[in-house]
């Protein structure tokens, strides 16, 4: 059975999906690195087993710093646009929010 032909719209959609996937991978690495460096009590004070599995779906196995723009600044320094961060769901934005900020903080 032949595969359907790829349309220009489908190709653009797939490229966009890959771009957003890359943004999410960079965010996951940021959170994993933040967790690995954490030494203070609180959400980061978890077991070594949990630290070795930062991508586990259990929220106690992840760590986001409390700063309002930590992820935004990190990804921005890597050349990721604010628009891509918003579309990936990493930043909170809206008409009533003048400056988008990190969705995940102190988690």
Write up this protein:
By secondary structure, this protein is mostly helical. The chain has a domain at 64-107. The protein is 45% helix and 9% strand. It has four helices and two strands, in the order ααααββ. It has helices at 8-37, 48-51, 70-77, 82-87, and strands at 91-94, 97-102. A two-stranded antiparallel ribbon has the order 1-2.
- What series of H and E elements makes up the topology? HHHHEE
Strand content: 5-15%
> Total strand count, please?
2
Low-confidence residue ranges: 57-61
Question: Could you report the average pLDDT, rounded to the nearest whole number?
Answer: 82
Helix content: 40-55%
Keyphrases for this structure?
107 residues, 2 strands, 9% strand
Short description:
The chain is mainly alpha-helical. It contains 4 helices and 2 strands.
Helix-strand layout with pairing:
Elements: H1 8-37, H2 48-51, H3 70-77, H4 82-87, E1 91-94, E2 97-102
Antiparallel strand pairs: 1-2
């Amino acid at each position: 059975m032949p595969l359907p032909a790829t349309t220009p719209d489908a190709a653009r959609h797939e490229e966009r999906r890959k771009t957003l996937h890359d943004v999410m991978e960079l965010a996951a690495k940021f959170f994993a690195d933040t967790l690995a460096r954490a030494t203070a009590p609180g959400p980061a004070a978890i077991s070594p087993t949990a630290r070795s599995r930062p991508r586990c779906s259990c929220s106690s196995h992840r760590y986001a710093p409390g700063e309002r723009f930590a992820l935004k600044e990190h990804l921005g320094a890597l050349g990721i646009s604010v628009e891509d961060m918003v579309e990936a769901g990493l930043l909170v934005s809206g008409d009533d929010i003048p400056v988008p900020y990190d969705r995940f903080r102190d988690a």
